[in-house]
Amino acid sequence: MNFWGYKRADGRAGIRNHVLILPTCACGSETARIVASQVRGAVNIIFNTGCSDVQANTDLSQKILTGFACNPNVFCVVIIGLGCETVPHAKLREKIQSMTSKPVVSFGIQEEGGTLKTISKAVRAARDLAAEAALQQKELCDISELLLGIECGGSDATSGIASNPAVGELSDKLIDLGASTLMSESIEWIGGEHVLAKRAATPELHNKIIKICADYEAHLKAAGQDCRAGQPTPGNKFGGLSTIDEKSLGCIRKGGTRPIVEVLNQAERPTKRGAIVMDTAGYDISSVTSMVAAGCNAIIFTTGRGTPTGNAIVPVLKVTANAQTYSWMEDNIDADLSGIIAGELTIAAAGDLLLEKIHDVCNGRLTKAEAYGFSDIAVDHVCRFV
Amino acid sequence: MANAILLDKKDNVATCTAAATAGETIKILGGGEIVCVEDIPIWHKVALKKISAGDKIFKYGEIIGEASADIAAGGWVSHENIFSVPRDYESEMI
Question: At what angle do helices A26-38 and A115-133 cross, to 10 degrees?
Fold first, then answer.
């Protein structure tokens, strides 16, 4: 299977060709937003961190920023910094340039003499880069260049019974075609970690999956939080999910059945192809943020209760098997899988349907969240701001 | 008549795919019928047999929690009467 994508110098393929306006920190975010609003083809993110952080938080926010820049859906990067943040624009630019050959330019608000002067320079740079991006022709890419992020959010009992198994089927089909899938949200492995770990290709990966769950639970305990009290969320409970175990056993079904070939740290880029899992929060926006930083070029997202979420860099295709949610929130959800619950659609047929939908998205079809220009982001953190 | 889905033969709960009212017979996709003894909202679980406090609750053929109170056959199983049991991660290592 092939799709029409944008080949990158590092061998990967993008399914979009964005000019990314990237703030180094919260203080650059508004300027970045205004620059992106002035240039067709540009997208921006709002970054709530990047300053006054402990080293572990800085390390993660840098992984997210550089990962976003290197994402294959990004043609080029325009960095907007302030000047006194932990990692200033020139340093971030050099770091990104050491990782990718794509065009990267950067500006500092204090250096330029305020936001208006920065905006005028950055808009001109982004305009010229957008003109160049528009010239890049799509080429036929093998489906093996697809790294599909698999996410669920606003789950209810239909997620584990129907939409997650359908996405699991999609994942198996994609892996058999040579593509890769990435499932995250490790807190939502807890209670089902023994089932997930059985898919590990090696005993080391098996134990790594168990250890991630043990460490996550211990981490929350150290902060005074029982993970069984915060999960499931009130919405999950209302939707019929009573314990973290029940939620997790449904969640992990979206990863399918193929052997897990790699277990990644948060926002880390895979080195293998096939079924991959990543240690991230169960907070869906944060999990998607880390998967985009890892290089996913598309995301499939199951929901029971409904969500509008989207990402600026990577299209998010949302599906539900809850008929009421689909009819109520059709403007935010891309595919209706409620036929599974009604007994009119098999899981295998739903997998075929999703393969077609994802293939269309790879070929350029906009998801609903993408058409609305949604740009959700949440950077995980391990400690209070300094 | 309401409907529910049984996901595994080991399970002692089924998931209602329509709201059920007390006294209504629920047809279980995957085997049998049960009369529910209280109102159960859509997507929530119905007990397929009598569950005593301390009994394990099975869904997907796996343990999803433990009962904190007795639940009658046909009763509503929710976060109000079951709870999650901490994992023994050490024993899961290979």
Answer: 50
